């Protein structure tokens, strides 16, 4: 069966009528809606007419309406709606004024009358309210976690190579993806700094990516840092600069951010809280080695180059030292250069770096100054197999950043749950791509009002003898999540009527996944509803959960095709601990995570 892949919004006539005038097309569209049917052209010479089924309240909705209204009554008052919200939806804090506001909004939307005309809901109004995701969404939209704990106690929304517009090898570098990331709630921006004569450029080194200026990135960060969240932005720098350019970078940073920039007077023994850092920007990078330390080491060890080849600052300082005489003037030059390096170092709030010994040793060391350690996804997987508890213990005070392996040239991503299971705060992702892994990232950071900081569960921050072991397999079931999916609606408004199938209405089905610790992972699937733009599944599934605190509920709608790959109908991912029980309207998103205007599901969530 041949498919049409166009995605124009609205219901229009078939492709044969594409060239007709706007007036004719409008008349034809209006006629189709009034007649309650769609016409599909078969083999270019006859039409198939399909009736548009009316969207009706499921029986469970009708029962709930009857239960919370007076016997025989056809309308629900504000007090009855408040009671429904408190008892059935478990929103015990709902006030009478909140219920009255809901009624006014629903009546105005459906009937276009003033708030003084009606103060009750009929069953259709009640159903409309339940299907409105802005009034009855699946999770809370306000910040509600404790924001006074140290930064190390939070999962933080983190980007990788935040300046790239596409792949890792040849795409453009730009401030645009940085702006988009900040608008979407990302709190950690990564910039790779490279020298170009006297300029500082941001690019992916040793590739064909085209650069963007450092100052342009800083200016964009300042402008957009807090448009979606008031909580701190962290800039992680991968620094390949000379000491002179480090001093210049320090000037750029201080002059751009001014009082927004936070840095402590001395090394931190505990990270500050997100609450105390509202509207502040911090720098995290590897501190440069100071000239006097390097020079002393050079004299004692008689070495001409540093052992750590990745330390560009040490290398430049040593080369400068070895090629210069010991005159007083040159010592003054050294001191001036060192002052610039020290100024750069002073701005670093979160110190990063590779461990001096093995990774296993570094995880077990207890150090007073807290720090950030970076591991590739492959390193984490390897280390987690034998030292999972050490990683969890390390992340109680320190920050662990996990980044994609170097072979992900297309800017794909890895499964983030292994990082979260081990307490990794910064699970760095390529935000410019899309795919199932990125959907999980979106789902995690829909929690806590989408502010970019999600407090880690107690199992990852409690004392050593009660610490969560990510390798544990025989864990007891803590609770069971019951998910009932009633129906879906909105595709007929957001897509052309031949988008999914050129010859008939779509055949939708839904897949539901639990993603989390291995013991909890599960997959369920509804039946296929044929030839219906408003599918009614009315199916319920149960998911036993051993670690519900780390579970995500992923939902994906597909359109069945007997001869080709099933079409994509929308997706979403929700953090299980944040789910609101009762009837909920669940909006769906496209492959890139952009919310559809009208497509949503009516579902019910219950914990037992």
TrEMBL record:
PANTHER family: PHOSPHOINOSITIDE PHOSPHOLIPASE C 6, PHOSPHOINOSITIDE-SPECIFIC PHOSPHOLIPASE C FAMILY PROTEIN. CDD domains: C2_PLC_like, PI-PLCc_plant. Its cofactor is Ca(2+). GO terms for biological process: lipid catabolic process; phosphatidylinositol-mediated signaling; release of sequestered calcium ion into cytosol; response to stress. Residues 15-31, 292-312 have a biased composition (Basic and acidic residues). It catalyses: a 1,2-diacyl-sn-glycero-3-phospho-(1D-myo-inositol-4,5-bisphosphate) + H2O = 1D-myo-inositol 1,4,5-trisphosphate + a 1,2-diacyl-sn-glycerol + H(+). It comes from the Eukaryota. It is found in: Cell membrane. The keyword Cell membrane applies. Pfam families: C2, PI-PLC-X, PI-PLC-Y. The keyword Signal does not apply. This is Phosphoinositide phospholipase C. Residues 462-590 form the C2 domain. Gene3D superfamilies: C2 domain, EF-hand, Phosphatidylinositol (PI) phosphodiesterase. It is a peripheral membrane protein. Keywords: Cell membrane, Hydrolase, Lipid degradation, Lipid metabolism, Membrane, Transducer. InterPro entries: C2_dom, C2_domain_sf, EF-hand-dom_pair, PI-PLC_fam, PLC-like_Pdiesterase_TIM-brl, PLipase_C_PInositol-sp_X_dom, PLipase_C_Pinositol-sp_Y. It is an enzyme of class 3 (hydrolase). GO terms for cellular component: plasma membrane. Residues 374-460 form the PI-PLC Y-box domain. Its EC number is 3.1.4.11. Residues 1-33, 292-315 are annotated as: Disordered. GO terms for molecular function: phosphatidylinositol-4,5-bisphosphate phospholipase C activity.
């Amino acid at each position: 069966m041949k498919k049409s892949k166009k995605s124009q919004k609205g219901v229009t006539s078939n492709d044969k009528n594409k060239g007709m005038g706007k007036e004719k097309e409008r008349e034809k569209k209006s006629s189709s809606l009034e007649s309650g049917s769609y016409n599909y052209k078969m083999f270019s010479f006859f039409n198939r007419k399909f009736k548009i089924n009316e969207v009706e309240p499921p029986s469970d909705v009708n029962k709930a309406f009857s239960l919370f209204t007076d016997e025989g009554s056809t309308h629900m008052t504000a007090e009855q709606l408040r009671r429904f919200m408190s008892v059935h939806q478990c929103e015990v804090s709902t006030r009478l004024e909140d219920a009255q506001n809901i009624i006014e909004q629903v009546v105005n939307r459906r009937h276009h009358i003033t708030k003084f005309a009606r103060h009750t809901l009929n069953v259709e109004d009640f159903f409309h309210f339940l299907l409105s995701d802005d009034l009855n969404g699946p999770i809370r939209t306000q910040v509600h976690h404790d924001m006074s704990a140290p930064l190390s106690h939070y999962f933080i929304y983190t980007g990788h190579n935040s300046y790239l517009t596409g792949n890792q090898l040849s795409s453009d570098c730009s401030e645009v993806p940085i702006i988009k990331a900040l608008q979407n709630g990302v709190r950690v921006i990564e910039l790779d700094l490279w020298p170009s004569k006297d300029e500082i450029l941001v690019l992916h080194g040793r590739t064909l990516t085209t650069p963007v200026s450092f100052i342009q990135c800083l200016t964009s960060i300042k402008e957009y840092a807090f448009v979606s969240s008031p909580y701190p932005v962290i800039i992680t720098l991968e620094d390949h600069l000379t000491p002179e350019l480090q001093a210049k970078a320090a000037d750029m940073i201080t002059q751009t951010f001014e009082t927004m920039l936070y840095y402590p007077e001395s090394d931190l023994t505990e990270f500050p809280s997100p609450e105390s850092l509202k509207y502040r920007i911090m720098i995290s990078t590897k501190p440069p080695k100071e000239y006097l330390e390097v020079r002393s080491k050079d004299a004692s060890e008689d070495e001409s180059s540093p052992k750590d080849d990745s330390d560009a600052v040490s290398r430049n300082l040593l080369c400068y030292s070895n090629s210069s005489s010991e005159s007083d003037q040159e010592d003054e030059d050294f001191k001036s250069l060192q002052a610039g390096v020290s100024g750069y170092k002073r701005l670093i709030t979160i110190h990063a770096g590779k461990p001096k010994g093995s990774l296993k040793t570094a995880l077990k060391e207890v150090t007073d100054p807290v720090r950030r350690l970076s591991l590739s996804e492959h390193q984490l997987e390897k280390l987690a197999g034998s030292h999972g508890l050490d990683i969890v213990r390390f992340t109680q005070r320190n920050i662990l950043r996990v980044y994609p392996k170097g072979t992900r040239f297309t800017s794909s991503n890895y499964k983030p749950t292994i990082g979260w299971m081990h307490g990794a705060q910064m699970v760095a992702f390529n935000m410019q791509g899309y795919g199932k892994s990125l959907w999980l990232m979106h789902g995690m950071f829909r929690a806590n009002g989408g502010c970019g900081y999600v407090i880690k569960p107690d199992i990852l921050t409690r004392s050593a003898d009660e610490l969560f072991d990510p390798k544990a397999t025989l864990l007891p079931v803590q609770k069971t999540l019951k998910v009932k999916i009633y129906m879906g609606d909105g595709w007929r408004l957001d897509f052309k009527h031949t988008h999914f199938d050129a010859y008939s209405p779509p055949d939708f089905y839904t897949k539901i996944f639990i993603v989390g610790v291995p013991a909890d992972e599960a997959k369920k699937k509804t039946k296929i509803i044929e030839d219906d733009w408003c599918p009614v599944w009315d199916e319920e599934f149960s998911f036993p959960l051993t670690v519900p605190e780390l579970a995500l509920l992923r939902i994906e709608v597909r359109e069945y095709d007997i001869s080709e790959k099933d079409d994509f109908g929308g997706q979403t991912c929700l953090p299980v601990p944040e789910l609101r029980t009762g009837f909920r309207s669940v909006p769906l998103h496209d492959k890139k995570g952009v919310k559809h205007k009208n497509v949503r599901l009516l579902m019910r969530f219950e914990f037992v």
